[in-house]
Specification:
This is Ankyrin. By secondary structure, the chain is an all-alpha fold. The protein has a single domain, classed as Serine Threonine Protein Phosphatase 5, Tetratricopeptide repeat. The protein has seven helices and no strands. Helix 3 runs antiparallel to helix 4 and helix 3 runs parallel beside helix 5. It is globular. The termini are far apart. The model has no long low-confidence stretch (mean pLDDT 95).
Length: 146
């Protein structure tokens, strides 16, 4: 980066370095990339932003840095759907990442938005079983019913 590398360079899947940092939860790298001008709303070929990546992996701390960009920078597009219509909140629920879902809801994520299958985030089947049930219960306990 110090030598002038493009922080928004993409690979054949349209992924930027910020997408990768979000997937891995590398807050230190994410902060550096954002400080150097990384586009927090960059879309990959699946129409996913770094926020989608952080949500699906359950990286709440990374979500927080994306949801609070430096002053003067564009706001994160919180309710953008990917090519299947899934918002970051859909993906957090799908992976049973309750804490990530709470971060998104508290930031204003739309709990009633439907994906291409007509499902709201809380209707996602995801991993299923007790883990999914506990995640939904945790979100309702923290944020109330949808």
């Amino acid at each position: 980066l110090g030598a002038g590398a493009d922080v928004n360079i993409t690979n054949d899947k349209g992924l930027t370095p910020l997408h990768y940092a979000a997937s891995k939860g590398r807050v230190d790298v994410g902060k550096l990339l954002i400080a150097r001008g990384a586009d927090i709303n960059a879309k990959d070929r699946a129409n996913q932003h770094p926020l989608h990546r952080a949500a699906s992996a359950g990286h709440d701390a990374f979500l927080t840095i994306l949801l609070n960009p430096p002053e003067g920078r564009p706001k994160t597009r919180l309710n953008t759907g990917d090519r299947l219509g899934n918002t970051p909140l859909h993906l957090a629920f799908d992976s049973a990442h309750a804490a990530a879902a709470v971060v998104l809801i508290e930031a204003g994520a739309d709990r009633s938005r439907m994906n291409a299958d007509g499902q709201t985030p809380e209707e996602m089947d995801g991993v299923g079983g007790q883990e999914q049930k506990r995640a939904r219960e945790y979100v309702i306990q923290r944020c109330g019913p949808a």
